[in-house]
Amino acid sequence: MKDLNKILLTLIFICKGLNSCSQNIGIYGGLNLSDVGSSSTNSVQTGFHFGASTQLLLKNNSFVEISAYFSRKGFRSIETFPYEYGPPEKVKVQLILNYLEHSFCFKQKIIINKCKLHAILGPILAIGLRGKYMYDYTDSGIDEDASVKWDRDNFNRIDCGLKGGFGIEFNTWQIDAAYTYGVLNISNNRNWQNRTLSFSLTKWFGKLE
After folding, report:
1. C-alpha distances in angstroms, 178 versus 60, 123, 174?
2. Which residues, other chains included, contact 44 with Cβ-Cβ below 8 Å and sequence gap of 6+?
3. From first to last of its 209 residues, what are the pLDDT tens digits of the chain?
C-alpha cells in the first residue's frame, strides 16, 4: 500500500508538470501481456498499467507524446527442480515485476472524417519498484513466495527499450495497442529481456489538435 501511495503521488506531480507545459493531458490504463523471451517453457504473465501522458504538437499532424506510468510485468514458466528425497519435481514459477516507466514517442496522426488514426514509435526508460517470485510445487502441494531484491538478487533495476504501436481516437477517447521490446537483460545470470504487448484506453482533457 505504501508503494502504491508513492506511485500515485509521483504520477500526480508528473501530471501537474505535464499540464503546465501542454494544453492537454491524458489519463489512461489497460492490460499487459508480458514475458521475458527466454524459452518455449515460458508463458504470458497478465498484468496492468496506468498513468498519464501529454502530446506536444510539432507540425501538422505530427506530435511528441510523453508518458509516465506504472506497469506490472513478468512471466510464468514450468521448471524442474531437484528433490533431495525423491525424483525431480515440477514447479510452476511466476515472476511479477513492477516498474515506473517513462516513454517519449513520435506520434503521427491520419484524420479520416471525425476518426483519427495514429502510429507511435519511441524509447522507454523503466525503473524497478518491487518484484516477487511465486513457486507452486505441483507434487507436494507447497506454495512459496520470495521478494525480488534489485541489484542484490541478480536483477537489474534499470531497463530501457523501444515502444511501437497504433491506435484510434474518437472525440476525447483513445484506444491503443502497443508492443514494448526491452533491450537490456533484467537478470545478470540469464538472458531475460522484458517483452510486453499492451492495450490501453485513454481519456483526454484539454485542447486536442
Report:
1. 23, 12, 13
2. 33, 34, 35, 75, 76
3. 455 555 455 555 555 554 555 568 899 999 999 998 766 556 789 999 999 999 988 888 899 999 999 999 998 887 776 666 666 677 888 889 999 999 999 999 998 877 889 999 999 999 999 888 888 876 666 778 888 888 766 788 999 999 999 999 988 899 999 999 999 998 887 888 999 999 999 999 876 66
What range defines the domain where residue 7 resides?
A: 2-73+97-130+152-206
CATH code assigned at 18: 2.40.160.20
Q: Record the cell numbers describing residue 174, joined without a space.
A: 483513445
The answer as to whether 78 is a domain residue is: no
Tell me whether residue 146 is in a domain.
no
Q: How many domains does the chain have?
A: 1
Distance CA 121, CA 106 (A): 5
Q: What is the pTM of this model?
A: 0.82
Alpha-carbon distance values, 28 to 122, 161, 202 (Å): 18, 21, 4
C-alpha cell at 205: 482533457
Q: Is residue 147 part of a domain?
A: no
Q: Report the chain's C-alpha Rg in angstroms.
A: 20
6 grid coordinates: 508513492
Single-letter amino acid, residue 55 = Q
| Strand partners for 162 | 123, 181
Q: For residue 144, is it within any domain?
A: no
